[in-house]
Amino acid sequence: MVSYFLVALKFAIVSISIYLILALVLIGTQWISTAVFKGSLDFDAARATVASDPGLIHYRARDGAQLGLRRFAPQKDQNPVVILLHGSGWHDGAYVALGEALNEQLGYEVLIPDLRGHGPDPIRRGDLDYIGQFEDDLADLIETYRGKERPAYLVGNSSGGGLAIRFAGGKHGHLVSRAVLIAPYLSHDAPTARKDGGNWAKVLLRRTIGLSMLNAVGVRAFNHLHMIQFNFPKAVLDGPNGHSATQSYSFRLNTSFAPRRPLERDVAALPDFLLIAGQEDDAFDASAYETTLSAITTNGHYQLVAGASHLGVLYDDRVHEAISQFLNREK
């Protein structure tokens, strides 16, 4: 009997060792590259605006970190607060035009945070401390500015839209009562995913598989390693704000942006929401949003904007107006 136990124990130890060694080999044989890859999203659509930048301020998160923020003050103290969540690689500065439009059209308070790991001077660029820290940071932001009575609305773009979905399905989801998803990221295998994703992101597949294997057995020690990089045009990186671009993400930061799996869980928790995207979206298949999400929840309203691309949708007056109308409508 003892010999059978020892054989089984030896087999288990060998199997676990092989599993861990394989994961480490996958992780250690792929690294972030400095090579330039061809093509990217249509950054020309991200046109310059005449919006008034309110300037960068900071708020305090629960761990004491001072995180960047742009704020448009409400016209009335009791007005709702809107939180705009930026997409991958960039920061709150790209959302000033949308923030100003919502503030002027609605009179709402608008907060545009630099998500942890982003902006001109992050603690660690492209990284945070643990999976889910974005959600804790956003809860701290909402509770700092909202007070007890005002409603809070989330507006997320691209990866920020994925984060808005994740937030709704997490422990802080009760803090928001309405959401707007602007061309949101759903998952790498959702019907909305394009094969090349507009050539915007390059995933280090071997490393990602290895890290996922370790996380499946509770090993988090390597989650700080970067596993996805972004294809910023040289003109952007060489421009006046190029230093503030975040060109790659750690496993734990990238995971913190995305809805949990299965997708249905977080989507089903969404409050009343508007999903808006450009018909010419070059990152995702915008035509698949409604069929994908309406099969999970009846809380959605859907709108595709003719002629708008993935980045261009942010600067489109039709989009600003549609979001304002949705956030201001009666329940």
If you had to describe this structure to a student in words, what would you say it looks like?
With 331 residues, the protein is α/β, with parallel strands linked by helices. It has a single domain, classed as Rossmann fold. The protein has 10 helices and 11 strands. The strands form 2 sheets. An 8-stranded mixed β-sheet has the order 1-2-4-3-5-6-10-11. A 3-stranded antiparallel β-sheet has the order 7-8-9. Strand 10, helix 9 and strand 11 (300-305) form a beta-alpha-beta unit. It is globular, with a radius of gyration of 21 Å. The termini are far apart. The model has no long low-confidence stretch (mean pLDDT 93).
Task: Report the portion of residues in β strands.
Answer: 15-25%
What global shape is seen?
globular
Tally of strands: 11
Strand order of the largest sheet: 1-2-4-3-5-6-10-11
Estimate the mean pLDDT confidence. 93
Based on helices, strands and strand pairing, what is the structural class?
A: alpha/beta
Separate helix tally = 10
The CATH fourth-level homologous superfamily: Alpha/Beta hydrolase fold, catalytic domain
Annotated CATH architecture = 3-Layer(aba) Sandwich
Blueprint (SSEs and pairs):
Blueprint: H1 2-28, E1 56-60, E2 66-72, E3 81-85, H2 96-106, E4 109-113, H3 133-146, E5 152-157, H4 159-169, E6 178-182, E7 201-203, H5 205-216, E8 226-230, H6 234-237, E9 248-250, H7 251-257, H8 263-268, E10 273-278, H9 289-294, E11 300-305, H10 317-328
Parallel strand pairs: 3-4, 3-5, 5-6, 6-10, 10-11
Antiparallel strand pairs: 1-2, 2-4, 7-8, 8-9
Helix pairs in contact: 1-5, 2-10
